[in-house]
Specification:
It is a single chain. The chain contains ten helices and eight strands. By secondary structure, it is an alpha+beta fold. The chain is globular and about 50 Å long. Bound molecules: glutathione (GSH). Glutathione binds near residues 1, 28, 65, 132 and 150. It holds the Pfam family GST_C_2.
Length: about 325
């Protein structure tokens, strides 16, 4: 893994020494918003009006943050309006590559770039920082609109509604405060908590991540024994943000990131809820377990130096879930 420094690629492993063994995730730097009419959003510049075919989404099928954006693209009927390029699951010395010798890896459909970092320097020749996915690219201004998944899913939730006629709302005004509270706990202890456990380089940093992580899973199991979704009966972005971590948990985080106190299949409600979300129309196609399992085990040399990719646990995501029929078919 590496990063860009003034537009040049520098190879280096994640350094957790300065932070006492703790893994700290850097904030995304491109924070513009697509809006229905191109008015500025909550951050960044204006000029990014919703339009069919104008924007391109770069993802990794392995990445839980990019996965959120694929889910919203699918649920919000954006597949015909926003095309996708997917990187190769192996993230090696030059970061994400556009090699296409793995089923589902597409290459870069716009520029035929070699690596994701080429897109960052195309947008900003002096960029310094990580070259992460997802990347939402604007073909008109030839730049990155956003590389922050939490914001891309909110754009997808509403900015294109007039174009698609799809007005499903996963961030309803009346529930926003509650969604924020749930999102914050899930992000800190679970979405990012698994990385904090896995990339910790001291016993203390590992334990500081892993105990709160399982406290949160217990809290969720209880919540989901009483509620169909995280926020009562309404399927919201909070559920989808949780889902991308749950689906990776047993095949990857349990073993590779040492989050091994329990598996998701050991929690009856969480496991049924994971299957219920998986079975929502349009979701299964966004889940590529071969990319997920390959990526983590093959890419993180510091954790798995021999790059042995484990065989998968046997899990049936299509088994009946008993949590009611999908509300959004
Ligand atoms: N804040 C970003 C985080 C994205 C992120 O960290 N993506 C990872 C893949 S799971 C990545 O591209 N890492 C490459 C790197 O850090 O060099 C988001 O949610 O969009």
């Amino acid at each position: 893994m590496g990063h860009l420094l003034d537009g040049r690629w520098v190879t280096e492993a994640i350094d957790t020494k300065a932070s006492g063994g703790k893994f700290e995730r850097a904030a995304a730097q491109f924070r513009n918003w697509i809006t229905p009419d191109g008015a500025p959003g909550p951050s960044g510049a204006g000029g990014f009006a919703a339009a069919s075919g104008r924007y391109h989404l770069y993802v990794s099928y392995a990445c839980p943050w990019a996965h959120r954006t694929l889910i919203f693209r699918s649920l919000k009927g954006l597949s015909d309006h926003i095309a996708v390029s997917a990187v190769h699951p192996d993230m090696l010395d030059e970061g994400w590559s556009f090699d296409d010798d793995f089923a589902g890896a597409t290459g870069d459909a716009l520029f035929n770039s070699g690596h994701a970092h080429d897109l960052y320097t195309r947008a900003d020749p002096a960029y310094s920082g990580r070259a992460t996915v997802p990347i939402l690219w604007d073909k008109e201004q030839a730049t990155i609109v956003s590389n922050e998944s939490a914001e891309i899913i909110r754009m997808f939730n509403s900015a294109f509604d007039r174009i698609t006629g799809n007005d499903l709302d996963f961030w309803p005004e009346a529930l926003r405060e509650e969604i924020e509270v749930v999102n914050t706990r899930i992000y800190d202890t679970l979405n990012n908590g698994v990385y904090r456990a896995g990339f910790a380089s001291t016993q203390d940093a590992y334990e500081d991540a892993v105990y709160p992580l399982f406290d949160t899973l217990d809290w969720l199991e209880d919540r989901l024994s009483r509620n169909r979704f995280l926020i009562g009966d309404t399927l919201t972005e909070a559920d989808w943000r949780l889902f991308t971590t749950l689906i990776r948990f047993d095949p990857v985080y349990h073993l590779h990131f040492k989050c091994n106190r329990r598996r998701i299949v050991d929690y009856p409600n969480l496991w049924a809820y994971t299957r219920a979300l998986y079975q929502v129309p349009g979701i299964a196609e966004t889940v590529k377990l071969d990319h997920i399992v390959r990526h983590y085990h093959y890419s993180h040399e510091s954790i798995n130096p021999n790059r042995i990719v484990p065989i998968n646990p046997i899990l049936d995501y299509d088994a009946p879930h008993g949590r009611g029929t999908s509300q959004i078919t």
